[in-house]
Amino acid sequence: MAGRVVKLTLEGQRVMEFQRPDIGVYRQGDYMPTWVAVHKERHGANGDVWVADGYGESQVHRFDKAGAHIGAINGAEGEAGVFSCPPAILIDYRKSSPELYTTDRSNGRI
C-alpha cells in the first residue's frame, strides 16, 4: 500500500506532491503518511514540511518547501528509542526555539 502527501490550494487544485522518500526502508516497506506539520515562515522558519509515516515504516521525514527530501528520523537518534507507530506530529512555537513533537502510539509516549 502506498500513501501520498499533496499540497492543494483552498479551491482544491493540486500545487505539488511530496514524493515517497527514496531511502532503503521503503525498498520493501510501506509508505503510509498520517500527518503533516509545516515549519511556518510566519514564525521565522523556512517552510520545511515534516511528514509522519505513522502506519508505514515509523519514520518522520523532513522536506524543504519545494518538496526535496532532506532527511528522516526514526527515534533511534534520542535516548527514548525507536518509534513504533508515530501517527501525529506538531511544531511547538511557545519556546524561544521551536520544538518538533511526535506521538508514538505503540510505545505510549510523546
Helices and strands in order, then pairings?
Layout: E1 5-8, E2 14-18, E3 35-38, E4 49-53, E5 59-63, E6 69-73, E7 89-92, E8 99-102
Antiparallel strand pairs: 1-2, 3-4, 4-5, 5-6, 7-8
Give a brief outline of the structure:
With 110 residues, the chain is mainly beta.
Keywords:
110 residues; mainly beta; four-stranded antiparallel sheet; two-stranded antiparallel ribbon
Structure description:
The protein has 110 residues and is mainly beta. It has one domain (5-107). 0% of the residues lie in helices and 33% in strands. It is built from no helices and 8 strands. The protein has strands at 5-8, 14-18, 35-38, 49-53, 59-63, 69-73, 89-92, 99-102. The strands form 3 sheets. Strands 3-4-5-6 form a 4-stranded antiparallel β-sheet, with no helix packed on it. The protein has a two-stranded antiparallel ribbon with strand order 1-2. The model has no long low-confidence stretch (mean pLDDT 93).
Structural class: mainly beta
Instruction: Work out the radius of gyration.
Output: 14 Å
Outline type: globular
Low-confidence stretches: none
Q: Mean of the pLDDT scores?
A: 93
β-strand number: 8
The major beta sheet can be summarized as: 4 strands, antiparallel
Provide the helix percentage.
under 10%
Number of helices: 0
